[in-house]
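Q: What does the assembly look like in three dimensions?
Context provided by user:
Components: two
Sequences:
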Amino acid sequence: MTREEIREGLAEILEEVAGVNPEEALEEKSFTDDLDVDSLSMVEVVVAAEERFEVKIPDDEVQNLKTVGDAVSFIETARA
Amino acid sequence: MTDVVVTGLGATTPLGGDVASTWAAMLEGRSGVSALPEWAAQLPARIAAQLAVEPSEKIDRVKLRRLDRSEQIAIIAAHEAWADSGLAAVDDQVDKYRLGVCFGSGIGGALTLLAQDDILEQSGPRRVSPHTVPMLMPNGPAAWVGLELGAKAGVHAPTSACATGNEAIAWGLDMIRSGRADIVVAGGCEAVIHALPLAGFASMRALSTRNDEPERASRPWDKNRDGFVMGEGAGAIVLERADHAAARGAKVYARVAGAGMTSDGFDIVQPDPEGGIRAMQFALKDAGLTGKDIVHVNAHATSTPVGDMGEVRGIKTAIGDHVLLTSTKSMTGHLLGGAGAVESIAAILAVKNNIVPPTINLEEPDEELTLEVAAGKARELTVTAALNNSFGFGGHNASILYVKA
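A: Here is the predicted structure of the complete assembly.
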């Protein structure tokens, strides 16, 4: 799975859970500051991403995932 | 005493998605009761009064999934009332530090609780939604109404089963009279049409099992009544200090002349009619009126064999033999925590429009029914004052008195 495929998958989750426009869900965007994803929705995003990408995202890792790109990198590494 | 008036109304009910359609259906004597789908096949009571308009038609998808159904309908009703009051149009000029909310539900987010319990059992704890707690907490509807409108004077969530809606209005009245707020959005909601609450009420032998004739099942005071029909819905009322409303030239539906609240101190589910009598008497006293002044009573009358007649005896004692009764539950079913609010709206519109909505299905009146009922069709008469009664499991009684402004 390429970085772009992971980003597109995340964008779909963000749209479903938090109503984020998929065109806005770019790697440099911050979940909280740019995309307005609140803390409870972030939990939903993480759980949905774990299921979709078949990875584990530990709770203490979530705080390091500031941007969409951070999440893409984590998932990419975890899948490798 | 500070005068408090009603300046806005909002509702979503089994009869319509707003106040205008609900009121029109009431005046036509339409039933909102219908058969439930296949999931109810094993239940003793397989009928209910379901919402006429699904909340998804008014709330966007992302927001919808963060709100329990009871919270969805609470904010739909509150937004309608807010717009109707004219305050939505000048929202940025409203002093939100003087805006309060008193909004209750009888049971809370039971649909969320039950759905998330299914997820817990089937998929494990990690799949349980992080929105579960704010969706099931009983103060959720009040909190959401407060958030939607930006209320900062205080948000309160009275919970007194089927007296909830009226109790919320009574506390809202208090909040303005005591000087804590200029405007209060008050009301109640309920959305628990699910097998578990239906089975629970049926086990109490409280529900009608007239499954073959849903529209004829809710029949207050009729000899052949056999229990209430569960309904879902919400009502919201904008209460406002009279001089505040006058200063902004607001449209006024009625004045809230008084409220009476009592508890039976008797039994967890069996009513003691004495408690209801005192609630009605306190409402009269609070308003400085006597029984003679009351023209119309929107009764609690749920269509249960015992409760309906106890209330009739109580009305005769507290108010007299001259009042015209109706039970809009014959059409809406029993909206539980939403009942007091939606029925208050019916009483307020009766005062405003001089017409009392009918009680349908009253074909063979109980012999003990010695008071006049607007049976079968709406009745036009000058309604100078109307009382709305709500009584709830737990022995809660709340009566609210509305008069012409």
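Follow-up: Helices of chain A lie at 3-18, 39-53, 59-62, 68-79.
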